[in-house]
Specification:
mainly alpha; two-stranded antiparallel sheet; single chain; about 55% helix; Multidrug-efflux Transporter Regulator, Chain: A, Domain 2
């Protein structure tokens, strides 16, 4: 799938610029930057100073939008999107127990 840069030029590497992410997610670029600033979105990689995203960012923005429609606060959404980054306590306990033995 081809994407376009913020200048409307196609990119061949699958990288999405902030304008394309915002357009496809139905939000403003300023909202994407705000979500980055408050930690709902991870800081993007930058190439020549421009933010570069992949398709996963669109999924995360969709999760945030769905959570907001469900009535969750941004703080609650932050807990939701970061929950996937924490180790699963069920798998972490046996590993700790094995190290203690």
């Amino acid at each position: 799938m081809k994407s376009t840069s913020s200048q409307g030029q196609p990119t061949s590497d699958g990288v999405l610029r902030i304008g394309e992410v915002a357009r496809r997610a139905g939000v403003r670029a300023s909202l994407v930057r705000y979500y980055e600033r408050i930690g709902l979105l991870p800081p993007p990689e930058r190439v020549s100073g421009q933010r570069c995203y992949d398709e996963m960012m669109l999924r995360r923005l969709a999760v945030i939008a769905a959570a907001q429609r469900a009535g969750l606060s941004l703080q609650e959404i932050g807990g939701l999107v970061h929950a996937g980054n924490k180790p699963d306590i069920r798998t972490a306990k046996p590993a700790c127990a094995a190290q203690a033995a």
